[in-house]
Amino acid sequence: MSGPKKSSYEIREERRRVLAEERMRKRELQIKQINSKLEVCQDKLNLLVSQYGDRAKFLLKSVKEWSREIRFSLDGDLREAWRGVKGIQNYLDKNSKLLEKQSEQAQKERQKVVKNLQREQEEQKLQEERFRKEKIARVVENLEQISLEYQEIFNDGIKQRVELFKNTIVSNPNNPNTLQQIETFKKNIYKQ
Prior knowledge:
Blueprint: H1 8-52, H2 57-73, H3 78-149, H4 156-171, H5 176-191
Helix pairs in contact: 1-2, 1-3, 2-3, 3-4
């Protein structure tokens, strides 16, 4: 039995329709892939901005503009959109390496500054300690001079006071009361 036959025109039109549908499916798939890659690029951009802060803000405007151009080109030739996506990916990769390098340099500079501050603080502490020891030595030597200069009146009471002042000065050489008491003590001994 034979039924109605398709004409060659109908066969060509059916084939053309099938090919057109296939092309549309491929195009829609490519558009989804482009949008997916743009989202990945946006995620990377967000990560860079959160990681590097103000130093990465300049990327926002460029990538936003670029992405908008790519989305407009989705209605036309997709090759332009693919080139744009590749451009954004390369741009972000290049700038992420640059930002990382700048961040490492900044970190090294911060470490250098911290080390210099620590070294300066240590030097200052050493200098303060040296001044403290010199002051103690000066005052103790001054107190010991009393026993040599005033041998005729030097007794156990004076000796105990001198030892008390020595111990007090060693524990706190910057106490103005102790220094004043030592001066008063020396004046009293001089008067005697």
